[in-house]
Amino acid sequence: MRAFSVHSACIQRAFSVHSACIQRAFSVHSACIQRALLVLCMNCATASFAQDSQTLNEKVSVSGQMTTDKFSSLIKQQKFKSVIVNRPDQEQGNEVSVLQLRSIAEKSQVSVVYQPVVSGKISQTDVKEFAKYYNELPKPILMICRSGSRSTALFNQAKAQDLLND
């Protein structure tokens, strides 16, 4: 019963998208139903990674801290071509280093730029440096910091100063 309450959206999607498959599973045996629900719930969990980034425009999205697995899935699903990491490696609570992110990204031919910015202390130099990267890097770009706020602020300041070539 718990599966139905937790994954009701998955189950509804299964009936609307895969009704013939599910009807066959019911007619064959219950093990098929269990496998179908498991696969469907795994697909739902994978799709939720893509929702963990916020699109600022068609060329840039921001995301907060994430695991290496989540990062790998996100760059593949959203087809990012570049990543700008704004979170300093030494910042408290940072469990994934820029070297780990770079290693994952390079396997997918995704460029990674490390531009650490101290939370709450965005300087004009930071804004200009970000604008330079934004203008030069292949798009779309994923920007990463602890919550996404710092990266969003960098983008918004550069945009407000008309530093971005769009």
TrEMBL record:
* Enzyme Commission (EC) number: 3.-.-.-
- Do you know which Pfam families this protein is assigned to? BLH_phosphatase
Can you name this protein?
Answer: Beta-lactamase hydrolase-like protein
- Enumerate the spans annotated as Beta-lactamase hydrolase-like protein phosphatase-like domain: 53-160
Q: What class of enzyme is it?
A: hydrolase
Natural source organism: Acinetobacter bouvetii
Against InterPro entries, the record matches this protein to: BLH_phosphatase-like, Prot-tyrosine_phosphatase-like
Q: Which GO terms describe its molecular function?
A: hydrolase activity
**In this entry, which stretches build a coiled coil?**
none
Superkingdom is Bacteria
Arranged from A to Z, the UniProt key words for this protein are:
Hydrolase
